Amino acid sequence: MSLSSLFGSSISRYRQKRSGLQKGSFGIKRFTLLLMLMLVLPSSWAREAAPVAEDPEIERRMIELSEDLRCLVCQNESLAGSRADFANDLRREIREQMKDNKSDKEIVDFLVARYGEFVLYRPPVKPTTMLLWFGPFIFLAAGAVFLIFYLKRRRRRQIEEPALSEKQRQQAEALLKEGKGNNA
Amino acid sequence: MTRFLLPLVAFLVLVAFLLIGLNLNPREVPSPLIGKPAPDFQLQQLHETEKTLTSKDNLGKVWLLNVWASWCVSCREEHPLLVELARSGIVPVYGLNYKDERDLALQWLKQFGDPYTVSIRDPEGRTGIDYGVYGVPETYVIDKNGVIRYKQIGPVTVEALETKILPLVRELQG
Asked: B134, B136, B148, B151: which to substitute to probe chain A, counting the most A Cβ within 10 Å?
């Protein structure tokens, strides 16, 4: 039996009993069962709660810092957002170092020394990351240069090439004359 | 003609980049620890829990540090190779039993064979963090001066052993 049918049937029975109800007799057993299920099920579905931070200030700092750090197990997630066991360990490490009054920079340096700059979502600007940082601007500039050249060439072509050839012009003139003649 | 040539060239360049990107393995993050002294540790041994092993104990010899766990599926893949390597006596293999339970670890070794000269325990993964472990199994080659010379991320394969690990070990043993 699915959960919804279980709940559904007990609710409809509850309604039935109510409609033809003698007071005090509305399916106490069923109601208690429902109540017990409601109490038991959510807690068995839920994961074990992570220990609540002792110090909300450290927790806030830790989350802020770890949002800019990459979880190496699930690489498109931040350390703050990842539920991997590994991320949990690193968050614990960060928390502990914060308790030891380490600065954010010291903690980041600690992680970079072990995991490399790959953990940083904001890599430092240095020769090997130049392309990463400025590549998009190079593409933008290249696109702009291409666009300017293209537009210039198109305009030049429009000026150079007359809209009508000589023959077309004569035909048009003839038509115009004809028109004038008719109007007159 | 150039009207079609230019987009075609651009397209081919794009394809080339995508192909290169697809063939790179994002899991293989180069370790910044290569060429640096192996981080210090003093850890309880897996079998004889009253004994410890420190990173300094192996100074003067080339050794492998293999990070493993009984819950790690890929560890089973590489395990027969490690057993064989240990049997050959070319290089001692030390095990770092990472975030594991002692009973399960011991049972695992009994079942699949124990290639490790000594296994040490890192139940909370703290030494793992010092070594930059993020995906078990990982294997480090550490030289006579206690410097990390190579890190294998993921299972040790025959290819890695033949082309990288063993030549390096021989060179270091020199």
From this structure: B134
